[in-house]
Amino acid sequence: MVRLGSVKSAAADLHVSEAAVSLHVGQLRKELGDKLFQRTGAGLAFTPGGLRLASRAAELLGLQDRTILEVRQAGDGRRLLRVAASSLFAEHAAPGLIGLFADRAKDLDVELSIHNPSHFETLLRTRAVDVVIGPRPPAGDTTLATTHFLNYQIIAVAHPAHPLAKAPPTASALRDQTWLLGPTGASRADVVLAMLHRMNVPEDRQQIFQSHAAALQEAKRGKGIALVVSFAAAQDIASGDLTRLTGNLLQAQGTWNITMLGGGTAPSAAAELTRFITTPRATQAMLRGGGTTPGRFKPSIYVTLWN
User: Fold this and answer.
1) Keyword DNA-binding on this protein (predicted)?
2) pLDDT band at residue 294 under the 50/70/90 scheme
3) What is the CATH number of the domain that holds 182?
């Protein structure tokens, strides 16, 4: 349901009835003591617990698909680059970057998986992935090689008729709003969550969607305030479908960095991507890729979701 966005689509994909899916969901809710998700006009809004459960399920399926892929590729003599990224980068910037990079090497397949940035170091050290993209890891670790390549800005947007669109809101007014978030809202190592903490927004005022684009659509319907990457909302702001809210608490700066194991131990493809990601062509491709879903990836690029 996280991947497809609805119970109906999930039932069709599994070749079972909607009633069967609803029955299993009801059993999970009872067993886990969590509502898991609620229906909205833009699709399903997941609770933090529901998002974590979905990530674990996707992890199991991803392990199966990845094993099959690696065995086949080993026999064909192809290279595989395994990239882990934060959900924010994966949705808004990865499609353009990875598509362009993969086109340059016909013997290379790229697997993109979405992870909580707090797991990046473990993923690299256990060699579960070859390179990670997202927030900069803690400073002082000389065994990791990190390259900064892009700054981004998080802003708050809402429907032009939203009550807080007229003037900078007070801190108490912000706490009382409905906040529409993509999967990054569940990550402890992300700029978005830090902004919510600064505003003291309670968890019950946060709605987490299966994608950042879905959260943005809900904001366009007047359902609340979305925290988004500025370039991803630029077109909607220019067209008047959204307005940017002003105030010191409603903007923050973030950085995207690429990290791999140092000392020449990383695969050659990881070093190739690190060099390429800092080029003007790569930057242009990332900025054009805002809002593109994983379904737009070419066949040579494989996407899996992890917690």
Assistant:
1) yes
2) very low
3) 3.40.190.290
pLDDT of residue 189: 53
* pLDDT tens-digit series, residues 133-156: 999 887 667 789 999 999 999 999
- Among 12-16, 98-102, 164-168, where is mean pLDDT lowest? 12-16
What would the mean pLDDT of 190-210 be, rounded to a whole number?
Answer: 89
Beta-carbon count within 10 A of 237 CB: 16
What are 88's two structure tokens? Answer: 């924010």
Residue 298: pLDDT band (50, 70, 90) is: very low
Which residues share a beta bridge with 133? 85, 258
Which residues constitute the domain of residue 231?
Answer: 153-254
Task: Report the alpha-carbon distance of residue 148 to residue 84 in Å, rounded.
Answer: 16
Rounded CA-CA distance 101/110 in Å is: 9
Q: Is residue 192 in some structural domain? A: yes
Q: Reduce the DSSP state of residue 151 to 3 states and report it.
A: strand
Intra-chain end-to-end CA distance of the chain, in Å: 16
Would 190 be classed as within a structural domain?
Answer: yes
Burial class from Cβ neighbours inside 10 Å (0-12, 13-18, 19+) for residue 29 reads middle
Number of domains in the chain: 1
In this structure, are residues 226 and 185 in contact, taking their beta carbons and an 8 Å threshold? no
Residue 109 lies in a domain: no
pLDDT class for 306, splitting at 50, 70, 90?
A: very low
Residue (of 142, 136, 246, 148) closest to 191 by Cα position: 136
Strand ranges in the chain using DSSP code E only, listed in sequence order: 37-40, 43-46, 79-85, 108-114, 131-134, 144-158, 179-181, 206-209, 225-229, 243-244, 251-261, 301-305
